[in-house]
Amino acid sequence: MKKIGILFGQERSFPQALVERINSKNVKGIQAEPLSIDKVVQNQACGYAVIIDRISQDVPFYRAMLKNAAATGTAVINNPFWWSADEKFFNNTLSEQVGVPVPKTVLLPSKEHPDDTTAASFSNLAFPLDWEGIFEYVGFPAFMKPFSGGGWKHVYKLESVDEFFDKFNETGQLVMMLQEAIDFESYFRCYCIGGKYVRIMHYEPRNPHHLRYAAKHEVSDEMMKTLEDYVLRLNQALGYDFNTVELAIRDGIPYAIDFCNPAPDADLHSVGQENFEWVVETAASYAIERAQAQKDGQDNLTWGTFLRNAIGQSTPAPKKKTSRSKK
User: Fold this and answer.
1) Does the global pTM surpass 0.85?
2) Is residue 38 located within the same domain as residue 173?
3) Mean pLDDT for the chain?
4) Of 45, 65, 101, 209, which residue is least crowded by CB atoms under 10 Å?
């Protein structure tokens, strides 16, 4: 029997529905359940063919456990090694490299020194930074947000230089990004599962939370195809099995605003019945697909094209020198 485990935190509607949907399909040799952990021993398999991760971004213990599981043959959705290395500023760079527009963005050092560092630790960092060049490049209004954060925590909308420095002084040791604000005409939030299944949802982030999915934007069929293409490009490059991409359209150009959401909101009361039904059904079918393909003791993770191409182009390891005996 191959087991599919769902690892989750406070959410209830999606994990429960996913377990029920997988089991209702009655696929021979496959069973889903909430993940159960009673011990984690190095280099010992956990007993699950597939684990769907919904919470390890908030629980370091879970992240370490998932890496151990992946190394011993479990197909973890999403790849815990990549998720640990991933962050939003790099994602913007990768997005431009695969041809998906993103807002102008710069990386900022933390306002306060990280623990166990002093000013001497930053010998290579110019002081002051080229603030004039930064502000000229990004422009105002702008958003300042953590370079690796999730959700809307520590996000500021800024209208001027003075307001920037006022809010920057509040950020402590957080590493922030300053990003161009996109004044959009329409906005979409898109599920992507398995790097191939896409659900484009009309979305209005300026509405109250319970009304955000009630939006209806008038866009062409050609634009919808472009949105789907961009979603697939991003997820295939990143290697995420389960993600959402948010795209804002300004002057006919879709900009990827937020596309690193490997544990995206899938709550029934947030996304609505139709979207909920799609994500439950698609995630269930994909989890079964991964369980059927899983092979014990092998790497069953998804690796994006960025890493796979980098490995393929890497410099070969130098050949070992052979010792020569003296004559």
Assistant:
1) yes
2) no
3) 94
4) 209
